[in-house]
Amino acid sequence: MLNIVDILKLKNDDAVGKQDTFSAVLFNQTLECKELVQEAFRFEGLTTPTTLENTDENIRRHVRESLIDVVLVDLNRSNDVAKDMERISHLLPNHASVIVIGSEDAISTIRNLKNMGFYYLFWPITKAELVDFVKHVYENRKQQAGLGKNRIAKKVAFWGTKGGSGVTLLTCEVALILSNLKNSSCVVVDHHFSGGDIDIFLGIPDFEKRAVQKGGLTANMDFSYATSMTKKLNDMLSVLSIESPELNELELKEYVRIFSTELASQNNFILEDLSCSVNCKKDLIYVSQECDIFVLTIDPSISSVREAGRIISVLDKIGSPLRCILVMNYTRPELSATITLAEVEKCLGQKVDVVCGFNKSTSKDIIAGKHIYQLDNALSDKIHKLTDLILGQQYMPPTRFSIKQLFKRKP
């Protein structure tokens, strides 16, 4: 027979067993913030968060290698909190709740961070305020509420003005850079529902598109189902490529869009390969409403530039908030071009952001299983520049030295 002491002991043991625990990491800029966070967590009996210096490399390495529930980012030395968080947002996994700590007292900062799916905590704070705020964020996390649920992937549409302009190549190379070098989780969406060369550019042997059946579009469509329709290349990169003998192209596009929406909740980037052969006006409307960045690829021909002008005009009329990046890709030797770069910019009324020069060895390199971004040539540099533009980063071209420069004597 249990007495009252035993009953109370059992209740206390149950309470301890049911106490929530969560993992946290702090990327700190200031010693004051680091010490306060550690003291607050210890005082409350919570597991002390791992603390690392706030650098891109630390964020890139630690967050991806660990299962983190809450990420605290100290930006007390930042001159523009929202801009800095936008710059590193691709390094943070969507499954983590992110609390930004900063001394920037502006409504616009709170609004901008909220739009990105981040919480903001104004510094200076007390230990009690910090603990209450962290607990509130974690409660939201358990209930799948709050800002974390709004964080979705950046959607980038790669659009070609004509067939053979290199859109699929650029899409795949950017995806490889983001996943392999920038530590960002990506899904490449293939809009070719019959054929296409996406497997060659990504280097996938024995590739087969996922088959979808008529009537498969149900209310039970969720992230797990959408993931099962992708081909996983590695932990950070997968490709969504589907086909069906029963469904027409419009129906398949509906499937792809629903899958993309589900996959956006757990990835940093959705990269849509919209080569010219599969585009239509409805696709342009979809892109203007659902995507964040528009990579418009042209080649130096009059027909391509005219089509680019039409597309830009349509987007202007729609009033799309898309951030547009204009790429001119020379798929043939420059001497065969029918229009110059200066004429292209004059016709379109804007500067070309990236010019990819012709490289005669590109086709051989791809067939040999090489990835352009890993090579030491001008085309590789331009693809890296395009990726940095997508990330909103400053591109720093690599410094190359010739044999003569290496052995040149100083005067």
TrEMBL record:
This is Chromosome partitioning protein ParA. One of its GO terms (molecular function) is ATP binding. The keyword Nucleotide-binding applies. GO terms for cellular component: cytoplasmic side of plasma membrane; cytosol. It comes from Moritella marina ATCC 15381. GO terms for biological process: negative regulation of cell division. Keywords: ATP-binding, Nucleotide-binding. It comes from the Bacteria. The keyword ATP-binding applies.
